[in-house]
Amino acid sequence: HDKDPNVYHFPDWGSPTGKDHKSILYLLPAVAGISGGTLRIPNSFMTQCSGGRNVVYSTSLLLALPMLLAGIALRDPDVGLNFLLACSLLSGVGGGAFASSMSNISFFYPKRLQGYALGMNGGLGNLGVSVTQLLAPLFMGAGFGAASVSDITDTWTYNAGWLWFCLCIPSAVVAFFWMNNQPNHGEATTLLNLKNFWWMETVGIGASFLAVITLIYTRDDAAFQSAGGKIGRNFLLVLIAAITEHIFMWFLTPASPKARVRTQAVIFRTKHNYVMTFLYIMCFGSFIGYSGAFPKLIVDLFGYIKDEDGNEITNPNAPDVFKFSWMGAAVGSLIRPIGGVLSDKFGGAKVTMVAIIVCTIAAMGQAVLVQKTLELDQPEKNFGTFLFLFLVLFLCTGTMNGSTFRTIGVLFEPEIAGPVLGWSSAIASYGAFVIPAMFGVSVAADTPQTTFWALSGYYVACGLVNFWYYIRPGCEKPGV
Predict the structure, then answer these.
(1) CA 7-445-84 angle, 5° bins
(2) In the chain, fewer beta carbons within 10 Å around the N or the C end?
(3) In this structure, are residues 48 and 418 in contact, taking their beta carbons and an 8 Å threshold?
(4) What pLDDT is recorded for position 1?
């Protein structure tokens, strides 16, 4: 769009330009985040209701749909943003799949290996973010004989959809033929298991849809035009999605899976479910939120400068976002298994505590750096430090992803640990909506540093909670 304003100008949203166009682009990963978080809620309980194998191949097939739609729609330079938001909403199926996979794998390993098992599964799963950020630009830059979406510059954005479509279908086939369900999970027949899956998944998509529709129809409301109003609306949308999904799941689920869901609902009477969820929001919420915001922040902070008349122009010395955007998610994903293994040896709470301290320092440093970068005529001078601090943030959040899940695996018995793992990841994954949306608001207001300061304060609060419940002398649950 920067090189050819006639491409992806989103006429259904009034063809915004400049900062307005940059700001609404944050909605695409944000909507996927709110959908992914909402769909993780039913998927937290899905494995025991439908069987792990059935859930995996079904989610793989369902995830292929938005990839197919995106591959077709992005060929049109006049494609509407609302259509892309619909694709983004459906892509949240992948987030739900993560929750069910973490719940499923926890049943296969003893407590002493929970850190390793959950770390490996989560780390390899999170690596998909980095793989996408690395491979998608390559596919978008290769035409394979097809016409470019622009007459001015060569770009084949739609190939990103085809990339993942071609991965989803084989994944479904492999899961169908070579995975197994736990013998005590699911119903007597595959047909009943699939009925349970599709019912619960559809209800989750419905709850996500309500939140997204609210987002679209309140975008011009006067109450939400200030920076504070926009951020408040983001949290309101999360509440709408999460509460609606819990109500739908409790009252609209068919009788047989409803009984299994209500048996697992004992987690909501356990205090440490909420404590660990609060901590995991810090870990995975930050990781997935940063993953969505990091590439856009590189462009917004370093991709533009002011000319002599004060007009915003493209920075000719800007770093190439495609060379660096994949690094953060890669670091966070690859370190996650190591965080789990270290936690098996030293204790999850202790590893989490060290990572919190480093993460807080890095976030505060990033806040100061970003503010100074905005004042420079040559912002690219600060890019090296910006990249380093962001990689530290990813390193810390990835480590804590492994350490907190190990703590959950040790705190609870297997039949409870699985739902807690899934539900905590569901709530935490709303960070994929909240954090990019917060950056979108703060970038539009020329104050992106405020998001880093807000996150720093949250990290401090998490450090205090972790210390109080799991580390201090006389704490409730030592050694976890």
Answers:
(1) 30
(2) N
(3) yes
(4) 67
